[in-house]
Amino acid sequence: MSSSPRPSILVVLGHPRSESLCGALADAYADGARDAGADVTVLRLGDVGFDLASREPSLQKWLGPDQEPAREPEVEQMIAAVHAADHIVLVFPQWWGTYPALLKGWIDRVILARSAFAYRAGTPLWDKLLTGRTARLIMTMDSPAWWDSLYLRRTATRSLTRATLGYCGVRTIGTTRLARVRFASAETRQRWLARAERQGRADAARTDRRRAGTKVLPREAPRGEGSTSSDTFVV
User: Fold this and answer.
1) Mean pLDDT of 105-124
2) Which of 13, 145, 147, 159 is the most buried (most CB within 10 A)?
3) 170 and 133 in contact (C-beta within 8 Å)?
4) What residue stretches are annotated with the Flavodoxin-like fold domain (predicted)?
5) Cα 61 from chain centroid?
């Protein structure tokens, strides 16, 4: 984590287009966090241009104890950014019931054995190497929230909070689902952007208090959200 006196926040945009609604939400969140005094890095995966699939073995079980996989400099920089962050924010659309391949590729290339977690020899247990960090998920979707909850069982957000972030020791403090994007008015969209900015400010303050060892505020209570669709942004 960061040794800076200010909290460090990494915002990962999992939409391939920066001019999308997700891109605007990532920017709004980052603006709010910066206003609250945080050091914010916005990683726009659509602009990075790294290979989604690793061409070298990257799982510990495939390597000897003294072996390390070959990685591109961009991937090494992204791994370093994760380790430098006190708080990680994933902003992405729900496509086909889950998150885009771009974000999945980032996870597969960056959240790695020996870096984010480590297996223990002779036991099924493992060490969570990202413990102490927190996360927030911001997800847009065209379907209504009830469809995501009842039919899809919140597949996208549950897999991230439990199978990825939680597995590595990262505690998710909030999940925001912005539903029915295709049908939302411009006013609804602006409310979403304002909410993302407020969340950025609140998370920066919460992270700062946590770093100082003071009591952390409880996670944000879920709210009902509307929908969205406009000519300005792409979901």
Assistant:
1) 94
2) 13
3) yes
4) 8-195
5) 26
User: How many CA atoms, within 13 angstroms, populate the side-chain half-sphere of residue 196?
Assistant: 27
Helix (H) or strand (E) holding 203: helix 186-211
CA distances to 17, 78, 176, 220, 223 from 202, rounded to whole Å, are 26, 25, 14, 10, 16
With the CA atoms of 207, 209, 212 and 216 taken in that order, what torsion angle do they form, in degrees rounded to the nearest 10?
-90
pTM of the shown model: 0.85
Reduced to 3 states, what is the DSSP secondary structure of residue 205? helix
The token pair that represents 86 in the structure block: 């006190």
Q: For tokens 């050091």, what's the residue?
A: 39
Domains of the chain and CATH, by start: 8-211 (3.40.50.360)
Beta strands in 120-230 (DSSP E): 126-128, 134-140, 171-178
- Which of 179, 157, 187, 201 shows the shortest CA–CA distance to 28? 201
Residue type, 162: R
Pairing of strands 117-119, 126-128: antiparallel
Please enumerate in sequence order all residues whose Cβ is within 8 A of that of 26, keeping only pairs 6 or more positions apart, or say none.
11, 13, 42, 44, 89, 91, 138, 196
- Please identify which residue in the block is written with the tokens 């961009």: 74
Q: What share of the chain is helix, strand, coil (3-state, %, to 5)?
A: 40, 20, 40
Reduced to 3 states, what is the DSSP secondary structure of residue 27? helix
